[in-house]
Amino acid sequence: MGFLPVGIVTSPPYNLNIKYNSYKDNLDTNEYLNWIEDVIVACKRVLRDDGSFFLNVGGSLKNPWIPFDIAQKARKHFYLQNTIHWIKSISIPEENISIGHYKPINSNRFHHIGQEYIFHFTKNNNVVLNKIATGVDYKDKSNIKRWKSTNGVDKHDRGNVWYIPYETVQSSKSHPAAFPIKLPEMCIRDHGIEKTNLVLDPFMGSGSTTIACRNLSVDYIGFEIDPVYTSMFTE
CA-CA distance, 53 to 4, in Å (whole number)? Predict the structure, then answer.
């Protein structure tokens, strides 16, 4: 049991015809979803019973159903314990704050997609999380003592909306769909670093999960079929 991953953090190709170095991201929809289900089944087979499977997926304006279709495939094999929204851009007019990446208004029908999903799957729906590790500081510190539920800790529950910035300018050598290192870091912290002995990423890409694990001193294992991308995190 010690060699089974207690955490899986990954982001597969979304079948949106993204220009990867070698992988063809334009399979027939049914073929793609059946393939994804095979991956999900394999993840369930190797994940510890008390583990967490964080699956990052997104859609497009032309194909918004992909995340939900994938979640439906996983429904036969996992509990959906949490649905986390990865927010890429946010605007708060009252605070005169706009952060993240925005695009020009170029459609009168569709909104620019500024978020993706992180589905938190578990085998039993009762995995205990370390919500303090991803918590938000109290703005009014007097509430720390006022509410017994805080146990004296200066943290709110962050909830399922996570703003995580990401790089928008990519070089010709970079991975075309890399998620930010903070995303797997947040997932691992959420599950609990202290009880995470091994993390698996079956789609390592440019190695964001690898770097996150190194930063957190957590062991990891992963797979990547393209040597161009593996060279990015083995140099």
Answer: 13
